[in-house]
Amino acid sequence: MSEQPTLFELSRPGRSGTEPPEPDASLPALADCLAEDHLRQEPSGLPELAESSTVRHYTRLSGLNMSIDTNFYPLGSCTMKYNPRINEVVASNPGFSHVHPLCEDHELQGYLELFSRLEKMLAEISGLPHVSLQPAAGAHGELASLMMIKARCRERGELERDVVLIPDSAHGTNPSSCTIAGFKTRNINSGEDGTIDLDSLHEALGPDVAAMMITNPNTLGIFESRIDEISALLHEAGALLYMDGANMNAILGITRPGDFGVDVMHFNLHKTMSTPHGGGGPGSGPIAVTDELEPYLPVPRIVRSEDGLELCGDRPLSIGKVRSFFGNSGILVRAYAFIRAHGPEELRGISEHAVLNANYIRHRLEQAYHLPYDTPCMHEVVFTAKKQKAGGIRALDIAKRLIDLGYHPPTIYFPLVVHEALMIEPTETETPETLDRFCEAMLQIAREAEENPDLLKAAPVTQVVKRLDEVNAVKTPILTCPCDEQPSEVEAG
Amino acid sequence: MPARETTESGPALPQKYSVKQLMAYFPHTDQDRDDMLKALGLESIEDLFRCIPEKIRLGRDLDLPKLASEPELIREMGSMADRNARMDNRPSFLGAGSYLRFIPAAIDSLSSRGEFNTAYTPYQAEVSQGTLQAIMEYQTMLCQLTGMEISNASMYDAGTALAEAVFMAYAVRRKGNKVLVSEAVHPEYRRVLDTYLADHPVEAITIGLENDLTALDSVARSLEENGDDVLAVVLQNPNFFGLIEPMENASSLLGCGKGEDDAPRRDRPLLISIVDPISLGILKDPGAYGADIAIGDGQQLGNPPNLGGPTFGFFTTLQEHVRKVPGRIVGETVDSDGKRGYVLTFQTREQHIRRERATSNICTNQGLCSLRGAMYMAFLGPEGIRKVAEASARLAHYAHGVLTKIEGVEAASTAAFFQEFSLRLPAGAETVYRTLAERNIGGGLPLGRYFPEREDEMLFAFTELSTKEDIDNLASELALVFSKDLREANA
């Protein structure tokens, strides 16, 4: 693997990668269209490359990534499962991709039909009757939900309810979304078994609490088995229960948030419904709610009239629009395809195989790595580097050594409640052979931690770069590529 | 490929495996499952779920349609796609923030590579150098285009980027709770901002229009009235009506930028500029007129309209504000051998570290769409984007000339425009839109949808994919419609 020069280093004045359509010569000249003082004085400093060089550049860059298509990617909490190609094929249909968002409703009947069906499917999966597909990502769904909870407090004259309870194992987006929605947060401790400590919950519950945010299974991969008690406590106190749906991959068709007392939740379609993560996005974070919260859902809503499906913006209690136009429609198309390709049985099968795979890894590694909680896991398992730490090895070192053995590392140092956490989520699409090989690698690393710790500390050595200095990146910030220098002598063959 | 068979009647639960046959999606054979369960000391898959109390179990199959095979899915979804109006199989003049443009063929093939598309957020830098370098180059190219100093890795869209920009201005200024927002900012973006501000101390004040341009007199008056309470002014250029705003005047009104002999005024409201990235091929960039934050929607950079999403929002600003920026930022560093590499940086701003004190709650962004944006900028280069912008502007000006010659049609504004303009029509714009649709022409946007008082106005957009013939045809169809209307009115 060799370093790839930047686009700017490859740039040569006068080259061009593509030829946009040439306008008709008889059109008015630019000078007759726009006055000189509107125009930019200098051309933009974008790089200048031939098409072939740019294709090679990005192809080579792609080779510097690990991805699901190339490697086992057991990144906990992220549900890195195989992304079926059929989803890409259906979404690339120009009848979906080349559609303008401001067409009239009757020109969008295919899309609205798909959305309407997808809403119904997600309602059935969540056990919550109403769904909005608009949030662009999980954190966006959280924010929209919290805004709805706030709007409900306002409507009921309960603005003194300005606290949201958050377990110490929660994703960082939970407290962060609370702040934007105008809530304060109050911490709830995890108990010895890794689930919510009910005493801590009792203590924290008061007339100032608007809601609690849970993740179930939680980020330790453990099912909150007293969830019905938790939801009853909250409801008795006049508060709502929110569920972060990041871990829905564990419970599809087995239990439903609406059935265990959740009032509002978000889905991560880019996790559970296998739409590709795209190197960081786009995702999609639909929200599902009870009848009581339905009036607060973002606009537009899809409604059925005599003329077909319509987008309705006239909703007096709605929190309003959470993004321009509709949702991440292209992602919704992929998620619809995924659910249709599975049906009820295979959807349940997803969770069965995801949980089977995670427990298998837990079983194979429980001697070599410390398990912070004895409780059986669901779709992911959290180990720690406690046993290795005695010899000076940290979770980070284990993660980096895994890279050299051909695996994407698990999530590390999360959840925060576990020190030196290694959070492994294999997903349902991995073969037992892959799991076995991965476990062998993890066992080898546990041995190396004792016998040859320097090997771990020096890792990775197989990639285009060795361990990168993140502190230096902040101390000496370089946030754009140098582009004013003379072209370098480096030429990518 | 034959359709996969499904069981006719719902399975009786509990059973050993709910998936009876070997389904294509799961790699496990019956033998695999047996071996794994045996290793775990379990009898059945059901045993794995003992931690879930019986009383909250579903105990039945989900009520969902039976699974569809690939050919069935292609047929079903193809017929849904057929019921949507496309922009690429008829002339279309819809714009207003979403545009059909030429996308180099190589972008589809490169961005669909699994190594990009099926990778996660590049937290593990050493195995994500491809994504990280691509983002670093994206940040750089956006800075080149906008004239700004730094860029983040992307936001959801322009509407949410605007909300984040206002939050950032609030954090930077540390005083004031009013933001002046021009009525010529896209109504969708303004609505998103209103939603985000509902529970935030900042209040948005709308600034009215003159000749469909932001009334700078009103901005000046509001600044005088509200003094230090104004933390930022939001303008869009070209504005929602396609018109070129007096950005330099606005900038000097606020005291932005670095004058020749005058030190920059630091204690002042920030200028937030929403820009059309393609327009920057020919129009003055926000860096040149001293904007503090420049944001916008990147759809036009290599992404199809996608019903408005996924696209991506871009977010650029000045280096001094780096610790207040929302979302991910990539930076250059060195590895343990001193070799160049890239990492996510300034992560202490972000939700996974700073939690309730983070600059934003954004985690997943629009990575693949912004990658396509980077590829677009790389393939087109400075000359390509200039040409695209110039062609769009020239076609629009040609159309303006032709369309305003039609009897009863007049321009809604006399101000200079880029590639989009609004016309007052002698009939309701919604009716005209439908009439054009019957003639297989995608009309412009009836402005009554956003501005009830403008129901006779239509906003027409032109890109480099518009043709002179399509414009001539649009003009003659409109002339025909209106002359018929006139005849009928006179009859």
Characterization of the model:
The complex is a heterodimer of chains A (493) and B (491). Helix content of chain A is 36%, strand content 11%. In chain A, a hairpin with a 2-residue loop joins strand 8 and strand 9. The longest helix of chain A is centred in the last third of the chain and has 37 residues. The C terminus of chain A is likely disordered. In chain B, helix 9 links the parallel strand 6 and strand 7. The radius of gyration of chain B is 27 Å and the shape is globular. Chain B is of the alpha/beta class and 491 residues long. Chain B folds into three domains: 66 residues, no CATH class; 272 residues, Type I PLP-dependent aspartate aminotransferase-like (Major domain) (Aspartate Aminotransferase, domain 2, 3-Layer(aba) Sandwich), CATH 3.40.640; 109 residues, Aspartate Aminotransferase, domain 1 (Alpha-Beta Complex), CATH 3.90.1150. Chain B has a seven-stranded mixed beta sheet with strand order 1-9-8-7-6-2-3, sandwiched between helices. Chain B has a four-stranded antiparallel beta sheet with strand order 12-13-15-14. Chain B is built from 13 helices and 15 strands. The interface between A and B is large, with 205 and 210 residues.
Terminal-residue CA separation of chain A: 14 Å
Question: Mean pLDDT of chain A, as a whole number?
Answer: 95
The CATH topology label of the largest domain in chain B is Aspartate Aminotransferase, domain 2
What would you report as the Rg of chain A, rounded to the nearest angstrom? 26 Å
For the biggest β-sheet of chain A, the strand order reads: 1-7-6-5-4-2-3
Mean pLDDT of chain B: 93
Please trace the helix and strand order of chain A, writing H or E for each element: HHHHHHEHEHEHEHEEHEEEHEHHEEHHH
Q: Can you write the helix and strand succession of chain B as a string?
A: HHHHHEHEHEEEHEHEEEEEHHEEHEEH
